[in-house]
Amino acid sequence: MGIRRFLVSRDGNVAMTFAVCLVPLLVGVGAAVDYARLADARELMQHSLDATVLALSSEAPKLTATQLNTRAGEVFNVNFPSGKASSLSVSATFTQTNGAVIAASASGTVPMTFLNLIGVSSQTLAVQSKSAWSSKRLRVALALDNTGSMAYSGKLSALKTATNNLLDQLQSQSTTSGDIYVSIIPFNRDVNVGTGNKDASWLYWNGTCVNPSSSTCNVGDKLYPYGTDKSRWNGCVGDREKDPNLNYDISVSVPDPNNYKTKFFVDQYGSCLSALTPMTNNWNSLKAAVTAMTSKGSTNQTIGLVWAWQSLQLTSPIAAPAKDSNYEYQDAIILLSDGDNTENRFDGNGSASSSAVDDRMSKVCTAAKAAGVTIYTVLVISGNASVLRNCASSPDDYFNASSASGIITAFGAIGDKLSALRIAQ
Q1: How crowded is residue 410: how many other Cβ atoms within 10 Å of its Cβ?
Q2: Cβ pair 157, 350 in contact under 8 A
Q3: How far apart are alpha carbons 240 and 346 in whole angstroms?
Q4: Tell me, what's the pLDDT at 104?
């Protein structure tokens, strides 16, 4: 009976069954632990790569492909906790076609503890990240009042400081050749286009006096086209002709060599300023132009604004560099003045002439903004606030500098605005 009872006994089945099930049960519970660790490592890896891409956004344009990959690894390792994965690999690329893009990838292996029991020693992780932003190229024209009143209260000195600071700020934003171009247009009643253009087909010489010692014509002074000695011209031009239909004096239409009304009127102005600087990214030349600025003459904001707008054009008379179709561009004008409009080619000094010049200026502002130009205006201490405020692209783009030092503050704020125009993450 004892042997038979032993043979039919079932008392040990639970223990045997538990022993058989224990290994897969441990593997199942352990797998959950391993996969939780894997998910945690993946999340940390993704966050670390995202942070790497964002950190590289400001550096990438200045790095070679090899430097970019090295830098990507350095930044990633700072962000990714040690011990979470091994055999880490990080790579990044930077492209600039219709915007800037940084694309990066990271991979590594995570050791398995419990899954190792069934031969799975590790799992591979791979994540990707991308950052894209528009990278507009800027063309900035500076129309700067260099009239006689700028000599007082430290205004011209502050303007030079402010302009140089702005140039430094823009240069720091220029990561590749062609990113930012700047022109400088000193103005008073006239604008100096440079004596090197004396034979240009877009100049109108007829009836122009070139007496080097006087702004008026005296007996014996040569009048073009009858005279031949253009070498005595100081480089100044006045407004173009007013036309009932086309308004050449407030437009940037291309001059027609066969139509004198479309040309720029040569004016031997006795208070001729230093010559304008066409669109360039030669920062030394731009700073030299700032140094050369002086203060004299009466105020015609319209002609400064027109030539600033003219310097943004890709056509005659001072064609800006061609634009690359792979990029977006933003044109901008900064117009600074410390006084009322008092004189242009057609209107002499007086309150009536101020109103006439203001009217012409308003038309230029409207046309330039309609053409997509962003206009910033700065009033220094005194002048017609409404005409400058209305000229600006928005109320926030108008600045009232109540002191000379306010010019520096205003240009700093405008520099920040230009940087925001250039890069939108």
Answers
A1: 23
A2: no
A3: 10
A4: 93
Three-state DSSP state, 229: coil
End-to-end CA distance of the chain: 89
Residue 193 has, within 13 A of its CA and on its CB side, a CA count of 29
Q: Where are the alpha helices (DSSP H) in 13-89?
A: 13-56, 65-79
Please indicate whether residue 275 or residue 101 has the higher confidence score (pLDDT).
275
CA–CA separation, 297 and 293 (whole Å): 13
Which DSSP category does 216 fall into?
Answer: S
Encoded tokens for 27: 């593997």
Query: Could you tell me where the beta strands, DSSP code E, fall in 146-253?
Result: 180-187, 191-192, 203-204, 236-237
Angle, helices 351-370 vs 301-311, to 10°: value is: 20
Lowest mean pLDDT among 163-167, 305-309, 382-386: 382-386
Can you tell me which residue has the tokens 């066969």?
258
How far is residue 413's CA from residue 378's CA, in Å, rounded to a whole number? 11
Q: Which two tokens stand for residue 264?
A: 């720029």
Q: Is 380 exposed, middle or buried (0-12, 13-18, 19+ CB in 10 A)?
A: buried
Q: Compute the Cα dihedral for 299, 300, 301, 303 and give only its sign.
A: negative
How many CA atoms lie within 13 Å of 96's alpha carbon, on the beta-carbon side? 18
pTM of the shown model = 0.73
pLDDT-wise least confident of 70-74, 213-217, 297-301: 213-217
Q: For residues 415 and 289, what is the distance between their CA atoms, to the nearest angstrom?
A: 19
Q: What mean pLDDT is predicted for residues 335-358? A: 86
Structure tokens at 95: 């492209």
What is the model's pLDDT at position 291?
A: 98
Kindly report which listed range (8-17, 194-203, 416-425) carries the lowest average pLDDT score. 8-17
The structural architecture, per CATH, of the domain 137-424 is 3-Layer(aba) Sandwich (3.40)
C-alpha of 68 from chain center: 24
> How far apart, in whole angstroms, are the C-alpha atoms of residue 412 and residue 143?
16
Domain ranges of the chain: 13-134, 137-424
The yes-or-no verdict on residue 13 having pLDDT over 70 is no
* Residue that the structure tokens 């639970």 belong to: 14
CB atoms within 10 A of CB 229: 9
DSSP 8-state symbol, 374: E
pLDDT tens-digit map of 209-263: 665 555 555 555 555 554 556 888 899 999 999 877 778 999 999 999 888 889 9
How far apart CA 259 and CA 332 sit, in angstroms, is 30
DSSP annotation of 175? -
